[in-house]
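Collaborator request, handled under Task 6.
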Amino acid sequence: MLKVAVIGSGYVGLVSGACFAEFGVHVTCVDSDKKKIDGLLRGEVPIFEPGLETLVAENMRKEHLFFTMDIKAAVADADIVFIAVGTPPKHGDGHADLSYVMDAARSIAMAINEYTVVVTKSTVPVGTGRQVSELIRQTRPDACFDVVSNPEFLREGSAIGDFMRPDRVVIGTDSEQAKEIMRQLYRPLHVLETPLLFTSLESAELIKYASNAFLATKVTFINEMADLCEQCGADIQDIATGMGLDGRIGKKFLQAGPGYGGSCFPKDTLALVKTAHDAGAPSQIVEAVVKVNGRRRQKMTDKIMRACGDNLKGKNIAVLGVTFKPNTDDMRDSPALDIVPALQKAGAHVKVFDPQGEKEGLTLLPGVEWCHDPYEAVTETDCVVLLTEWNEFRALDLDKIRMMMNTPLMVDLRNVYLPKEMKEAGFSYVSVGRPDVGIDDVSVASSSLSSAASL
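C-alpha cells returned to the collaborator:
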C-alpha cells in the first residue's frame, strides 16, 4: 500500500487526502494548526463541502486516513509527500506568496529517509517546482527525491466528484521513477479512462494558471455581453445558449452575474499577470479581465441603487446568499464583500440569509442583520437582492414574499427567475442582461391579481 503525507489540511489538502484514502491509500494529513487537527481527530471537518464529512469519517474508521501535527514522522514514513499549503497573493504586488510552500519544503527535506516523490499540489507560479527541488537539495544534499507538479482542478461545492471523476490528471516531471509512482497512485482512475497528461514541471504549473485565466475570461466576456444586451434589447441567456451550443466554445462559465470571486480565479489571474509581465511576455487579455471584473461589483451595486430609485436611506434591503458560490461556506473575494458594505454606506439596513455563510460573514460583514431563512430576511423590506444562486432560492414562494415585503422589488444578479413569471407574480424585477419588469408592469400585474382575488 502506498503511503502518502499531505502537508496542509485546508481545502485542497483535506479533500485530496480524503479522496486518496478512499482509493485505499494510507494517508496522513499534517497541519500546524492544533485546533484544526484536534477537531479533525474528533471528526469535525472545518470547511463545508458536500460529502466531505462522511468521507473523512468513513476513512478514519477504516484506518486509511490519519491526522497529525508531526510533519517529521508523517514524511519519514511516506512514499509521496504533497505540498498543499496556501499561496495567497502578496500584499501590494499580486505575486503568489510562496513562503508556506518553501517552509513545507524545508520541513520535508529534514524528514526524508528513502526515495520520496515530493508533489506540489498548491497552485504555484512557473518555476516553483525547480525552486523547491533546489531548496531540498541545498538543505539535504544526501536526500533521494524527485519533485512533481500535480495541480488541482477542484471546484468548491463539487470537489469530491471532481477528484473522483476528473476531466484529466496533469503530472509534471522529467523522472521516470516519479512517473511510475504517480501512475500507481492514480491507478483507480484507470477504470474511468481518465487521461493522465505527463508534462514538464513548468508546463504543469502553467496549465493550472492558464485554465483558470481562460475560465475567468469566459465569465468576464459574458458579463460584458450582458451589459451590451441591456443597451440593445437582447437577452443574455439566449446569447449564452447560442454560443454554448458551439462545441468550440461550450456552455460552461457563460452565466452572467456579478463577476468571479472565490479562492482561485482572483489570485490566479493576478498571479498570471505578474508572472507574464516578469517573463517579458505580458498577457494583455488577462490584464483586461482582471480590470473588468474589478469594476463589475460597482456596476451591480449601481444596478441595485437604480432599482431602488437611487435612494437607499432608511430602506431595508434583503440579500439572499453571500458566499462566492453555492454549496460552500467560502466567502473569499465574494461579490457580497463589496456590494453589501456599499448598500450600508448608502444608508440601507441590510438583512442577510445564507445557508452556510453566517459563520464567516459575522466577521466579514459587520452591521448586517442575520436571518434564519429567506422569508425572515425579506420581511418588511423594500428590495430583495438575490446574490448567490443556492438551490433553495430557486423555488421561493413568490406570493408569500410579495405579501411580506414593503415593496415587491427583486434584483436578481444570478438570473434565477424569468421576467415573465416575476411580472405575473406582481414583482418589479431587475436581472442581468435581460429585459426588466418595470413599476408600470407591476402595477398592472398587481391589479390583475387583486381583481382575481376579489372574484
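The cover message to the collaborator said: "Residues 441-455 have pLDDT under 50 and may be disordered. The domain at 3-199 is CATH 3.40.50.720 (Rossmann fold). Please let us know whether this matches your experimental observations."
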